[in-house]
Automatic annotation (TrEMBL):
Keyword Hydrolase: yes
UniProt keyword annotations, A-Z: Hydrolase, Membrane, Transmembrane, Transmembrane helix
Species of provenance: Haloferax namakaokahaiae
Protein name per the record: Metal-dependent hydrolase
TM region positions: 35-54, 74-93, 136-157
InterPro entries given in the database record: YdjM-like
Keyword Membrane attached: yes
GO molecular function, one term: hydrolase activity
Amino acid sequence: MNKKGHVLNAILLALGLGLILTVDPRNFQPTTDSAFALAENVAMLSLPVVLGALFPDVDTAFGKHRKTLHNLPVLAIFLAFPLIFGNLQYVWIGVATHYVLDMVGSKRGIALFYPLSPQEYDLPTGVATSSKYADIVTVVVTVAELAVLAGIHYYLFSLDTSLSSATTALGALMI
Ligand SMILES: [Zn+2]
């Protein structure tokens, strides 16, 4: 996917995730407090998620594209950062959604296990990044991501406690 697609995906994901964290459709009462909480969650997530979503394609200039910065060890570094240095919370969400969009939404895959293996993994759902359908595919992929996240948040476990603890738990697992 191109830069425009990744930014579109990250912004929509931050908006949707902010909404999911703030609003429970089963017992929602619109109040000024809930409007402030929504704005706060969207602001908290949007910049880190957009930055994370832009990062992997830095490997078009440094290293091998879709390999050097498109793999699980790089994601592990972003998960470890908040644990070790206490910063870059939520940037991993942008990196993770970049990988999902490249694998699901575009023709070429990514080398998930690089540098252990140069094999690129892909799903047969993608369209060419230059395709006129690229934006539609990006929106569809984002809606699917948000549907999965909403399902987890409303029916399995609360993401607002676990977004930060997921960072902690996943980071601890990976280092
Ligand atoms: Zn990419």
